[in-house]
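Honest question from a wet-lab person: if I give you the sequences of every part of a complex, can you actually get the arrangement of the whole thing, not just the pieces? Trying it with mine:
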Amino acid sequence: MIDNKMRNIRVGVVGCGYWGPKLVRNFQSIPGADMYIVADLRQDRLDHIRGLYPGVRTTKDYRELLASPVEAVAVATPVSTHYQMAKEALLHNKHVLVEKPLTRDSREAEELIALAKERGRVLMVGHTFEYNPAVQYLKEYIAKGELGRVYYINCTRVNLGIFQQDINVIWDLAPHDVSILLYILGMKPTQVSARGAAYVQPNIEDVAYVTLYFPTGIMADIRVSWLDPCKIRRITVVGSKKMIVYDDVEPTEKIKIYDKGVDAPPYSDTLEEFRLSYRYGDITTPAISNAEPLELECRHFLECIREGRSPRSDGVVGLNVVKILEGANRSLKNGGLAEELSW
Amino acid sequence: MIDNKMRNIRVGVVGCGYWGPKLVRNFQSIPGADMYIVADLRQDRLDHIRGLYPGVRTTKDYRELLASPVEAVAVATPVSTHYQMAKEALLHNKHVLVEKPLTRDSREAEELIALAKERGRVLMVGHTFEYNPAVQYLKEYIAKGELGRVYYINCTRVNLGIFQQDINVIWDLAPHDVSILLYILGMKPTQVSARGAAYVQPNIEDVAYVTLYFPTGIMADIRVSWLDPCKIRRITVVGSKKMIVYDDVEPTEKIKIYDKGVDAPPYSDTLEEFRLSYRYGDITTPAISNAEPLELECRHFLECIREGRSPRSDGVVGLNVVKILEGANRSLKNGGLAEELSW
Amino acid sequence: MIDNKMRNIRVGVVGCGYWGPKLVRNFQSIPGADMYIVADLRQDRLDHIRGLYPGVRTTKDYRELLASPVEAVAVATPVSTHYQMAKEALLHNKHVLVEKPLTRDSREAEELIALAKERGRVLMVGHTFEYNPAVQYLKEYIAKGELGRVYYINCTRVNLGIFQQDINVIWDLAPHDVSILLYILGMKPTQVSARGAAYVQPNIEDVAYVTLYFPTGIMADIRVSWLDPCKIRRITVVGSKKMIVYDDVEPTEKIKIYDKGVDAPPYSDTLEEFRLSYRYGDITTPAISNAEPLELECRHFLECIREGRSPRSDGVVGLNVVKILEGANRSLKNGGLAEELSW
Amino acid sequence: MIDNKMRNIRVGVVGCGYWGPKLVRNFQSIPGADMYIVADLRQDRLDHIRGLYPGVRTTKDYRELLASPVEAVAVATPVSTHYQMAKEALLHNKHVLVEKPLTRDSREAEELIALAKERGRVLMVGHTFEYNPAVQYLKEYIAKGELGRVYYINCTRVNLGIFQQDINVIWDLAPHDVSILLYILGMKPTQVSARGAAYVQPNIEDVAYVTLYFPTGIMADIRVSWLDPCKIRRITVVGSKKMIVYDDVEPTEKIKIYDKGVDAPPYSDTLEEFRLSYRYGDITTPAISNAEPLELECRHFLECIREGRSPRSDGVVGLNVVKILEGANRSLKNGGLAEELSW
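Yes, you can. This is the full assembly:
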């Protein structure tokens, strides 16, 4: 095993737009990886990569990458091509890391899961927030029961642009929040509803609201927008004992725990005597590791390859997220009526 | 007329819980008002008022107030009693200022409007934000066309408590945002939908989301909650040219105008060439008068009485708000299905 | 004694500019006080008071107030008149609460202390921050040793205006910080230095920096300005174990405790091995009572009168503050050279 | 000339601690530079660089770098070695970019200036902030006269660590503010004073205050500290017409212009009539380019080499900064007495 760990894994990255270069940088600097080849349709993106890392091969034809001796492929192309890229890579017996969302269709996701299983390859989805130390803290804090019973969760993820042309804002931004919710709650919603509107591009919603209903009565709301003047990345989890806010835009104080809550009042006969009891208390901002989530994700991918393990954000997680997004988009077309989710 | 303006108007206030004392303070200090009598069921609240203003009469029986020589009555009792209180005051030929929401039922609101008309009395609803200089600025800025076409509006009004026992959070907090939206847009929505949940008190929603759909395609979302660790009072208006954020919690910089937006791209044949054009620009924080909205509201009430005018936030405005809140609550019971609003 | 406590103390307030009306409001609403008479040179200020509190007597001649049956006088006039007003009130056998700074000259302060002692009256200075729950918390936190050894303190108190015409910004704003420092550290500085400049009014410094040197090596810096675009009220106390920030502008999170610090490194032979050890940790925001400091101060004044006690911020505290301000102003004239303080 | 511009300039970087790797990354990605060789005493730092940029040569012996065919050398070693490193590089006829401060002694700086002139080489100091778009904006805004007459400037640059072992906090952090002040005001101070204290390491001040006095009456204060719980990077420039705040910690709204100020009042006979006139107005946050200052600095260095020009932050600028820091440290030893600066 130790011997195995020493071996460098050759990695190829397909797609060098917004996200690809970050993957390249990480695979270039992480020990145990050999950042071998990058593919993109645009020559200027490839030149940019070569300027930074003269040792990395580049190609405009991703088939050249697939034919190369890389063992692992990271797919950072537009969402509409994820399925095809991941499928071809698996058929070439590569381990595959696909950016989120895994696919635009749950049947495609199921097909990739089956194919990865058949070929004995790792299929991982880039749900980066599952590797974020703040999200990890949130999950553990809830699991310890310190929040009490979780009541509801509000997620806001808005900013100005980057607009996508092949998917709406739900497919683009909500995968982050959906994967965080599944991860920290450890359960799947039974219903989803969504509302939205398309202002800048016809038929591509740029503003949307998604509501997930979980079995225990937890309601989780997600607000996503490409059309907001401020960048907000904020998740509020309200429990019966405490409340917690995770603000990803804060440079250092990402998590705040509010030791105040509301107790349901004891039974009383008269309205006059009826009072809710409040508990106001301290606020705590725990120290959170500032390790880069993407680096942790890339390391996890390599470890899973070496040890033959299934990743935290495996194909099934990716599929679950896709099913919820599909449901949200169906609701969007149906005037916001809640859609049942079957698992 | 000038002579008329000199005359002091005798005012009575019914209800001295959270809001009533603020009305008393204003009617006590505004020239032209004679803060005459206060009624409340609780002796300790009356003692508190008398400690501050030894000249003000107090009574535990509101009928004593109605029988007194006051010309104007401000009703600051629980919502469920608004209709009865306002009706009795009008039947005693008093001018009436009722706290928002006007009533819990639109038929009751219609009845009050008819009664006020019949008796020739002023009926005003305490939609304070219509007298807020920041909201006034917002309305004028939109009217001048500087935002361009209004795309959508997001309102957030959350904090921890004060819980109500006779109404849910929509009836308690959403009247503010609904009245602001009607006022700044100058139109009425055609549909409303809502989702929510009751966590602390059974069947009384403490968390809710309301969506209004306006004729021109404007979507306005309102998030209200009594169960949030932070006090947020924030309205974001996104237009085709600019964006504006009104943050009522900010002590001095309440309004920020973002001179950045997104233009729909020109038609293009290839996906590769397709790019949205962004315009990033300056942010402006205009100087806003810090006059107290409640004082402006109270002065407006007195002026309307003196001049026989209909107030800005008259009974019809109050009725429109009630109709929208009724629709939202129907949608809440129907799984979030959008309700048509007929005007 | 209990009987004594029931008795209402008649209070007079001299000066109704910026601060006086706040004193009037408190003495009006606190049980145990009878807000009897207010004196000011300006009729419009007196009319304002009478509009709010019809039962309060008013006069343009403060001698009328001194001749009235009040037992206690609060002096809220310009600083240059404090000495004269307080002296006359004591000579009329009144208990006296004087706004800070007590006087402009330490000999005058000493005279007032002697006079109050001779007449057996309470002499108190309105160092409001000593009654502020956040400052109280700070004092107790330091006393418990949780910060470790106190290293240094930085105070910033700046905003745009209110300009004074009879005193510079050190006399106007620094009394707050100086009294806080004396109170939370429980010791007196041995040296003081100051730098400043007068930009708007000739010879009246509107920007200044004051440095206090305490016996244990604690350096405390105070920045005061009437010429800053932002209102900042911030005190940072750095200790060997923890650090604490008190931000008085924050509406709810006034105190933050930083559980991070720096340890001096162990001795080492080579520079290469030499590293300081850092400890990063949690941040805690304790819940602080939001009781109004001025109300607590006014209650304390009344208690001291009733029980014949010396107040927390008595004449001696006021004198100590004046001596430090005198030293700072001498240093200001001497090019910032540190002035020795003799106690 | 154009031909000249095409040519790649071979660059070597000495020192790969905190700052060096940022220089390497920039020279690696900027067109027109050939990032050739890196020297550092520590093998692990060199391995780190080689992991990222396999094409870059590395050495533990900086003399190997000097002997290599590089034309330009960037010195990012501890301050105490700047003089020796820069001198040797110039003696090898290299163009030199030295991190700030240029040297610890003004005579050394003068010697380097003379040597660079003699050899006809570019000598540049890494005063990065002179290449910062926000500082550029500040300079131009002041030059246009929009602030009116500049009254005073306050600079705060504090955080927890990084402690230096060979220089105090003035030498470490104040060079940034001093170079910004010289640059935006376009003049040199006539006096400097400083106060400070050493808490963690004996005789190495970790907290200090520096005051610069400029000919026109401008007072500029600089607060620097390695011992503060919060990272603050804030410069406030107060003028007779407007005020401007530059907050470098803000991710997007770095500059805010406050259109409010104070006019000196007209002469008046009586104190009562005397009032200062305030002008409250809008706040503007201009859009500032988010180009990386270090990249602009590195490009400027290459351009000056190609075109034989003297850089914006040349040796003389570096010398001026060193002279002021020397003066500040003399004042520190003399109890804060202001030191005259001779130019």
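Two things worth pointing out. Chain A touches chain D at residues 28-29, 31, 51-55, 231, 249, 251-252 (CB under 8 Å). The longest strand of chain A covers residues 227-239.
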